[in-house]
Design brief:
This protein is mostly helical and 399 residues long. It has 16 helices and 3 strands.
Amino acid sequence: MKSWQCIVYIVVALLGFSIVTVYSTDMTMFAAGGAGYQFTKHLVWILLGLAVLFAMSVIDYRHLQKLAYPIIAVSVICLLVVLVPGIGTVTNGARRWLRIGSMAGIQPSEFAKLAMIIFMSNYIAKNYNNMHSFKRGFLMPLGFIALVGGLILMEPDFGTAAFIVILSMLMCVVGGMRIIYVFFTLLAAVPFIYELVFHVPYRKMRFTSFLDPWQDPLGTGYHVIQSWIALGSGGLTGLGLGNSKQKLFFLPESSSDFIFTVIGEEYGFIGGMTIIVLFSLLLWQGLKIVSRTKDLFGFFLGLGITVMFGLQAAMNIAVVSGIVPTKGIPLPFLSTGGSSLLFSMFGIGILVSIAKQSLKCDTDKLSADEVKEEQSVNENFLPVRIATKIISKIAAFSW
């Protein structure tokens, strides 16, 4: 079985879990909008997402390189527009949504994740010989990362901003950015991060409740305590489909950010581990595709998308398990939320396109110019060479 086919099957399996679990959480009289409302919306977004996946899978991903600057420009404009009162919709105290009618809406920060991956992939591919320099390899990428991260932080959305900064910096480090620059940037950012966390009351309360949720069990510690109760109630095999107790009155966001908790309660440890295994397989197959990519843009694009899914899943599961402070990070392909699902399917479509184009290159004879370019990358670009070796070791793993 080809890697892209395996990825499609994994995504379909995750969507199957999502459909059944969202149906379970939404088929109650207490669901927002009435019974079946969220489930119907979720099905519509899944269908749209599948259409986007198919469309992107048949388009050559290299066209995205030509559109990298327009894509990041559109993303920045959307992030600016959503901050305008009367245009951006305030939900739970944050202005993060551009609403289209009563049912539809787009979250620009979700688009920004993919836009930054496309942009940074293009930037690194075009400047890989200068990625060790201070100006081209550090200041300019950092400026773009700070711009997008800063706009998302103004919504405010600390979790997504931090996610994009971490993901973008990881791509830059693999691309050749000097570690010493990253180290001193982290040192310089410590006072700024401290200010953001401890001088903003609700973030400070989240952090302190993370250390001891029981000090405020009905307030900031409520989410994680209810999540623990649900996960503990599931045991080994779970309470059974539709039998979750916490989804009824107790666990907020049970069909979105905390959907893994409901899976753990209804399907038990076995169900939770199944989700973790599926994401691990997705990461493995994604790295397989990356290891076979023939060009730098495709390499970093595939790497960024693969790491995005793995990192986002890890962060979500860590949040609902109480390993890290509570933050609204959706679980890819499982959580409700049209923007997250749509752009996740967009990313999978790009991965499939990369895999198909790599297979096509394998069957065609490489031109002399392509061979020369590959040799120059392998001989002169140490970070990519090291990353490729590591990825190849992971990708070559076989049962």
